[in-house]
Write a structure and sequence with these properties.
Elements (H helix, E strand, L loop, with lengths): L6 E5 L2 E5 L1 H23 L4 H6 L7 H21 L3 H11 L1
Antiparallel strand pairs: 1-2
Length: 95
């Protein structure tokens, strides 16, 4: 019965038919990204929030470090979702 079921992912308003494993891998990755974005917004450190709270002196290094941590975490998540073949292609193309 599951052999007849079709799976599709929608990316930038375009529908792509994919295998069941690709569908669920993308769904899992997408949901993880949404959860992380929600957490980031919850604990967001920004100049505007410091100003709203009356904090005028802050270290830019703290904000930069936070942004770098978020970027590295997103990169790690993206790399973990790659197949072995995709990793090989990535390494060959960028190195």
């Amino acid at each position: 019965m599951s052999e007849n079921k079709k799976y599709a992912n929608v990316i930038e308003n375009q529908r792509f038919e994919v295998s069941e494993s690709v569908y669920y891998t993308y769904l899992k990755s997408h949901e993880a990204e949404r959860h992380k974005d929600k957490q980031i917004r919850k604990y967001e450190l920004s100049r505007e929030k410091f100003k709203e709270k009356g904090i005028t002196k802050y270290k830019k290094a703290i904000e930069d470090e936070y942004i770098n941590r978020v970027i590295l975490q997103r990169l790690k998540t993206a790399l973990e979702s790659l197949t072995e073949e995709e990793i090989i292609l990535f390494v060959c193309f960028y190195l």
